[in-house]
Amino acid sequence: MTTTAKICGLSTPETLDAAIDGGASHVGFVFFAPSPRTLSRDRAAQLAARVPAHVQRVGVFVDPDDALLDRAIAAGHLDVLQLHKTAPARSAAIKARTGLPIWSAVAVRTRADLAETATYSGVADRILYDAKTPPGAALPGGMGVRFDWSLLEGFRHPLPWLLSGGLDPVNLREAVAMTGATLVDVSSGVESAPGIKDATKIRAFLEAVRDI
Ligand SMILES: O=C(O)c1ccccc1N[C@@H]1O[C@H](COP(=O)(O)O)[C@@H](O)[C@H]1O
Q1: Measured in whole angstroms, how far is the alpha carbon of residue 87 from the centre of its chain?
Q2: With a 6 A CB cut-off, is 83 part of the ligand 1 pocket?
Q3: Which member of 30, 136, 200, 210 has the lowest number of beta carbons within 10 Å of its beta carbon?
Q4: What is the pLDDT of residues 152-191, one digit of tens each?
C-alpha cells in the first residue's frame, strides 16, 4: 500500500516548493489567527498559485465562521477543508454550503476518544487522527504532540482517515508500521522553530515516506 503525505502550515514559496517537488500529495494552509502559521489572504493567494493541479490545497480551520471560510476558500483556492473543534452539525452545514470535502479532526489521548469518529459518519470525507494538545494550549494541533499509535491497532475505522500529531522524519516509519496509515500529515516535525518550515526537513520527511 502506498503512503502519501500532507505537509501542513506552509507559509513561504521556498518551503511550499520543497513540499511539491518532494512529492507531497497535499499541502496545508492554516487560517487560525493564534497560530504562528496563519496566512493573510494575499499570502494564501500567492502560495495557492504555485500549487500544481495534482497536489491538493487543504485549508486548516478551528471552528470557522462563514466569513472566514469564504475569504480563505477564495484566496487559497482550497480543495479540502480540515476542521478542528467543529461539531458534526456545523461541519455538515459547512460541507453543504461550500461543496468541499471535509476532514474532521479527532483529538486522541485515550481509546475512548476514538468513539468521536463515528459522530462524523455521513459528514466527514476523512477523519484526521491528531494528538490531544495539553489543557489550556493555544492550539488544538500543530504542537508536535503525538498520541499512543497502538490505540489504532485493531480499530474499525468508520471513515477513510489520515494520521497526524508529532510525526517527523525519524518516527514516521514506526508510526505507519503500527497504524497502517496511507496518508500522513506533518507540521512541527519539519520546522526549525514554531511556524518556521525547514526545506531540508521537508525533503527528509518526504524521502522517509517514499522509503516506507
Ligand atoms: O499548525 C497549526 O498551527 C494548527 C493550528 C490549528 C489547528 C491545527 C493546526 N495544525 C495541525 O495539527 C496537526 C498536527 O501537527 P504537528 O505535526 O503535530 O505539528 C496537523 O494536522 C496540522 O495540520
Answers
A1: 17
A2: no
A3: 136
A4: 999 999 999 999 999 999 999 999 999 999 999 999 999 9
Ligand 1 mean position, distance from CA 138 (Å): 11
Q: Report yes or no: 16 and 199 within 8 Å, Cβ to Cβ.
A: no
Domain that holds residue 14: 4-211
State if pTM tops 0.90. Answer: yes
> Given ligand 1 and candidates 10, 184, 187, 209, which is best to mutate, with the most ligand atoms within 8 Å of its CB?
187
Tell whether ipTM is more than 0.90: yes
Q: What is the DSSP string of 106-156?
A: EEESSGGGGGGGGGGTTT-SEEEEEEPPPTT-S-SS-S-----GGGGTT--
CATH number of the domain at 52, please.
Answer: 3.20.20.70
Please state the domain count of the chain.
1
